[in-house]
Fold this protein.
Amino acid sequence: RAAPGNTTRLVVARPVRALYPRLHHQNVLLRSRYLDTVVDAALASRTEMTTGSATTTTTALVTLGAGFCTRGLRVGGERGIRCVEVDLPAVVDQKRRLLVDRGVVAPNLDFLSADLSDAAQTAEAVRRALKSDDNAAVISVVFVLEAVLVYLEPDAAMRVLTTCATAARAAGCRDIALCFADRIPGVAGVDEADVRRVLLEAGWDDLVAYLPKPGLARHMGSARASAPVVERDV
């Protein structure tokens, strides 16, 4: 009997992949285009910190279960945003090799290895993602989830959502956003109220946008988590 990983490779390789229904390809295109739109909106509204006459923003785009998505390359290079991709060690290693083989230089792209089904690894990866290269705190963060929660057990999927919101608040982020095209755990259908309820339980206070679609990763949208209260001297 073939191992699950070997079976997956056979299915996604030529010639078998040519047999995929066109709806599958359109679903992937739809969710990717939608995520590009909501990620752009989240980045455009990120918090700016003013110091003297200079206005600067320390922003991180953190993609969990990034796979071979190119969004980090496109977004980071254009805007100087620090992009962090989290995935299994084997996936990270293969993506690094592909970038090297193709001569792709991505100074704004960092990789972190973690198994998102493991609570400790998830927490550590998110914590590290919320630190810039000079160890400065990240002021604004946008988390991205694209068809990753659907492959996790419901408890682990919920833990990923909760960890992102909790860690960002603990790190003192002033602007905390989540962009998703995935299956929200505990939501069997596509009802917006159910999605809102689960996200609220995970620490995401405001469902900014929502659009359901066919397929496994049927819940698409963006949400925000309230920032920690900053006490000011008076």
